[in-house]
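#data-curation
PF: Archiving a pair of folding outputs for the training set. Convention for this channel: one message per protein, sequence first, C-alpha cells after, nothing in between. First:
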Amino acid sequence: MQGTFALPTATLTVEPRWSPVFTGESVTLKCEIQSYSYWRYQYNWGYQWYKGSSRTAVYQSQRNTFTIRSAADQDQYWCRGERDNRPSSSRPSNPVTLTVKEKPKPELTSSHKGAAQIGNPVVLYCELDQSAGWRFYWSKHTQSPENEIKTKTHSYTISSVSVSDGGQYWCRAGRGNPVYYTHYSDALWINVTAVTDSLTVSPSRAQHLVTDPLSLSCDGQRDSTGWRVRYTHSEKVSDCSSGWGSVTGSTCSISSLSTSHTGVYWCESESGESSNPVNITVTNGPVILDSPVHPVTEGDPLTLHCLYRDPKPSDLTAEFYKDGSLLQTQTTGEMTIRTVSKSDEGLYHCRHPEKGESPQSWISVRGASFSVFSLLSSLMAASPYLLVSIVLMVKCCRARAKPDELNTV
C-alpha cells in the first residue's frame, strides 16, 4: 500500500522585486513547486495563475513564469501546479499583492540658484522618490531620446560650465528590460553668464515664427573685430558661416527661420572670450510670446505681448501664464509688470482661445546696478541743499588747514 504524502507547496515570487510598479511596466510572476519528499515531484508540472478571489485561472502554461506585459491595476495574484502523476496538484501559493501606481514624473533641480558663471561647476538632480532600480536620462534643448545622456545616479555634473551649456534641460528615469520610462520632468533653464556684453538680436525677442528673418550681431562688443556668432543645438556647436546663416562683418543674418534654428546663441572672440548667451525658440505654430532675450533689471517695467501668424485674430484677448499658472487675462493681448522683482523670474507663455498656445520662454531677472554717480544723482534730486552743504564743509576744512601748513614752513 502506497503511503500518503503531504502535497508540495507552490511559491509565487515577482520579478523585478521592487514595489510599487507603474502603469505600463512589465512584471513577471514566477511559480515554483517545492518538494521535500520525492525528487520526482519537481517535474512535469503545469502552472496556473489566479487573480483576486477568482477560482478561474487567468493564465496557464507549462512554463513556470507568467509575464504581465503592461501592468494596469492593483490586485492579488496566486498560483498552483497541476500534473497527470500523483500528486496531481500542489497547494496554492501565498498570495502576492501587486501594487500598481500611475507613471511617475521626476523633478529636475539645479545646484545653482540663479545664473551660472562660466567655468564654475553645475550639478543637475533628477529627483524621483519612487521604489528602486532606476537609471537616469538627460536631454538638452529638446526631448530627444537619441541624444540623451544616461547616468547610473540621479545627478548629472557639468564640471566647467561654458556658454554652450546654457539652455533648457529635461530628465526622466528608466528601468527594466525592455526599459520602462517615467514621464519627462518639467523643463529647467540653465543660464550661463559671461563678463562681456551681450549678443544683439533683431527682432529683439526670444520667440520667432518659421520663415521669419532674424539678425544676430556682435557689434555691441567693446571691440567687435574678430567676434563671431556661434550656436548650439542637440549638443552640436557651429558658426554662422557653416551654412545656417550669412555673415557680414560680425553680424549673422538668417533670411528664413526654421525650427532647427531653435537653440542657444552667443558671440565668441578669436581669443576665446564669450558673451552672455541668448535662447531662441522658433515654432511653426500660430502663436508666439514677445518676451525679452536678455535678463530684465529689477525695478524696471516689463511688457509681454501675444503675437500671431497671419491672419491675426479680430479678438486679441489672451491669457498669460507663469510656470504653468494663469497670471492675467488681457483683452489687449499684452501684459505689463510695472516693477519687476526677482520673484517674477520663471517660464512664461501665452494662450489665445482660438489660435492656441505659444512655446514657453524663461525670463531672467538681474539685480539693479549701483554706483557712486547714481547715488549723488539721487541726492541731488532729493535734496540739492544737502549736496551744497557737503561742498561748503569741504571748503571750510581746507581753509582751516592753511594756517597750520604756514606754521610748518
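PF: Second:
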Amino acid sequence: MPLHLSSPLNSVLLCSSSSSSSPFTGSSHNYNLTQPWLRRKVHQRGPGRRVYCLSTRPKRKASAAREDSEAEDLVRILMRKFSDREPLVKTMDKYVRVVRTEHCFLLFEELGKTDKWTQCLEVFRWMQKQRWYVADNGVYSKLISVMGKKGQTRMAMWLFSEMRNSGCRPDTSVYNALITAHLHSSDKAKALAKALGYFGKMKGMERCKPNVVTYNILLRAFAQARNVEQVDALFKDLDESIVSPDIYTFNGVMDAYGKNGMIQEMESVLARMKSNQCKPDVITFNLLIDSYGKRQEFEKMEQVLKSLLRSKEKPTLPTFNSMIINYGKARLKDKAEHVFKRMGAMKYTPNHITYESLIMMYGFCDCVSKARDIFDELIESGKDIKISTLNAMLDVYCMNGLHIEADILFETARSVGVNPDSSTYKLLYKAYTKSQKKELVDKLLVYMDRAGIVPNKRFFLDALGAFGSLPASLDSDSAKSLSRPEATSKS
C-alpha cells in the first residue's frame, strides 16, 4: 500500500477572518479566535527624503544566542567524553578553565534525561570546589527538579536541607521544584498532602508567595487525581489572589481531566477559560480533539477541528495523529484514511507517530496486510525504524491472534536495523501469556536471557493482568524461568 494516500480535498480552508468566530464545543458560546495584526504606518517618500534601515533586534540578543550555542556545543563535547573509562570529574578538570555555571545547568538537564542522575551530584560537588562558584537558589532548584523526575524524593529533600545550610534562603522557584519532586513519587495521596502543606507554608512567607507556576502544578496534579473539589478550591483561591491564570493553567487541567475521561469537568474548565478572556492555542485544540476522540464523541471532535481551521492557529501533526488512532479504535477506517488524505492535501509531512497511528488503525480494523504494507514501505524507504514502530506492528499481529507472525517479525527485526528493547519483550510476554502460548513464552525468555534482560518488579506488574488468565502450570514455569540469575541488566 502506498504511504501517501493522496487525493485532493475539495475544501480545506485555513481562514483567519477577523469577523469570524466559531463554536468551540457543542455549546452556544462562541470564541473569537482572532488576534489584531500589528499595523505599521507607511509614509510616502518625498523628494530629498532619506530612507534609513534600522534594526529592530537588539544586538545583545544575537550575542546571547551565540553564547548559548557555544555553551551547548561545549556540553555536547563533555557528554561525549563521559565514559566508564574516564571518570566524569576527570573530564571536567580538563575543561576547568571554560566550564561555568551555565554549562553545569545544561549538564544537569542532559544527565537528567538519562538514568545518570547520580552524575548530576558529581557535577554539583565539582562546582562547589571551583573559585567561581557561589551558592545559588537556581542551582538547587534545578537539581531538586532533576531528582524529582527520577523519583529520588529523599535526595531532593536532602538538597533542600543542603541549600538552607549553605546560607541560601528558599524562594518560590525552589518550593515549586520541591512540590513537583514529591508529586513524582509513587504514593500519590501522600504526595498531594505534602504538596498542599508546602503550598500553605508558601502563603505565609513573603519571599515564597505562590505564583502562577505553583497553581499550575497543583491544579494539574489534583485534576489527574480526579479530585474535582480540590481543583475548584484552588481555582477559587487563584481568583482571590493577585496571581492571574495563564493558558498553561487551563490547558493543564483540561488535559488531565480529558485523559481521565472526565469530559463534563473538562468542558467546565473550558467555560472558565472563556470567562477569563483567555484565548485557546493549538495545544488547547489538540487536547480537546484527543479527549473527545478517546471518548468517541466524534461530532464534538470534528466541531473542534472546524474551529481550529477557522482560527489563526494551524493544526499540527498531533492533531491528525490523534484523529487517525481514535477513528481506528472505533473501527472507522474510511474516516481515518480521509484524515490522512487531508493531512497530505495540506502539505503536512507524516512523522513516525503518524505511521504508527496508521499501523495501529489498520490493526483495529482487521486490515493486518495494510498495516504490514506500511511497515514494509518504511523499511524500504531507508528511514531509521524506531522501536515504537516495531512494537506497533507486533501489537497489531498479537491483537489479531497472529502470534507466529509476531514471533517471526521479532526474530528478523535486527536484520532490518531494529534492536528490540525491554518494551518489546514486555509487549510480547504479555500477549503470549494472555493467549496461553507457552512455547512462545519459553522461546521469548531464552531471548531475554541472551539479551541480558532481567525482569524487575515493574515488568511483573505490567504483565499481571495477563497472568490472571494463565493455567497454574504455565504461571509456575514462567515464574521459574524469569528468576534465573544468568542475566545482568534490568528491563
